[in-house]
Amino acid sequence: MVMMMAAAVRRGSEAFFIGSQIQQCQMKIMGMILLLSPTTPSLLSSNHSNSISSSTCTSSSSSSRNRRDKRKHDDACSFRNIDDALASFNHMLHRKPLPCIIQFTKLLSAIVKMGQYYDTVISLTKQMELAGLSPNIYTLSILINCFSHLQRVDLAFSVLAKIIKLGLQPTIVTFTTLINWLCKVGKFAQAMELFDDMVARGCRPDVYTYTTIINGLCKIGETAAAAGLLKKMEEAGCQPNVVTYSTIIDSHRKDRRGLCNFSQWKEASALLNEMRSLNIMPDIVTFNVLVDTICKEGKVSEAQGYFGKAFRLFRAMQSTYSKPNLVMYNILIDAMCKSGNLRDARKLFSELFVKGLQPNAQIYTTIINGLCKEGLLDEALEAFRNMEEDGCPPDEISYNVIIRGFLHHKDESRAVQLIGEMRDKGFIADVGTTAW
């Protein structure tokens, strides 16, 4: 299914194919281990089957003690910092008998969630192995995640080979982690192969797996293939989420071959309607992309029609929990100014203060530029001075915009004054300003 899509993007790179023949898989990936992971031989060794029995929690004589240990460990998982986590790990590692692998795995998971100690988790896993603890599928999946975050997808695959060799069943999390990181490092053909192999193994993709592949397709410009996979996803009974839809809609905006850039707003709108029919409320990113697309699509002669669509979408968003942010206000104000609709642009700018939103330098500069183009220099200068009062001092772009406005309307005296201010602040006039 998906391999047909992958054919268009293959560039002759060798795939990490994990076939149904386990012996073949082991030979291929274990060969990679010997070449690429000399520093982690103990971690990937095959002696786990000889691990001591204390790694299990099945002994009836120790069950009550394990329950007590589990309660203590669960409390310890809310660590203040990495030092607390390491202290807890060392305490657990020196217990007799050892706590079960599940408790260690929870601790490793808590450290991973701290977001920066991936190499530490790898080291702790090696210590667990040396103590005789056999990893389970969740421990090894955490290890794959850590190697991936360290951009060592090759070593992550060696852990996958270990999973298969131990007779464990990779989970959807295991596969999705690898697929995600293959996409991130640009090995998209391999990601597609792994996706197909996952399906062949009877591991059903979830919304996160599908969205990862769709995002990868969109990043390489295969928007049509991504839309096709969206349909396959729905046919398989897996409901897309807001991220899935937003990814495709944004890709349409960026891709010159996409829907929105070829005046096919109806199809993009259909995606939005589909989201609503599934009770999936578009988030701020989706709305921003759609409004930006509509505004940029409209030619001056057709501007009112397009802005009408954008503005209706904008007002619809205001009735949801995803309130418009500064990005969306700036998109609309900029589009209105460029089309000569300064009156509505000013109204929208004033609305920011009513809504409790603080304009940033970009929005101020946008409205100042619109005022200058209409020759409303006094009002432009007033807005420019208000920036400082509102805690949003003009930046280099703001100065260049208003100076060009004064020069364009032959108001050299005020332009010279602003140029002096600009230099005092250490800003530099750009080519467009000095050309006057």
Automatic annotation (TrEMBL):
PPR repeats lie at residues 136-170, 171-205, 206-240, 325-359, 360-394, 395-429. Keywords: Repeat. Residues 45-64 have a biased composition (Low complexity). The keyword Ribonucleoprotein does not apply. SUPFAM superfamilies: TPR-like (SSF48452). Residues 45-74 are annotated as: Disordered. PANTHER family: PENTATRICOPEPTIDE REPEAT-CONTAINING PROTEIN 3, MITOCHONDRIAL. Belongs to the PPR family. P subfamily. NCBIfam families: PPR (TIGR00756). This is Pentacotripeptide-repeat region of PRORP domain-containing protein. It comes from Populus trichocarpa (Western balsam poplar).
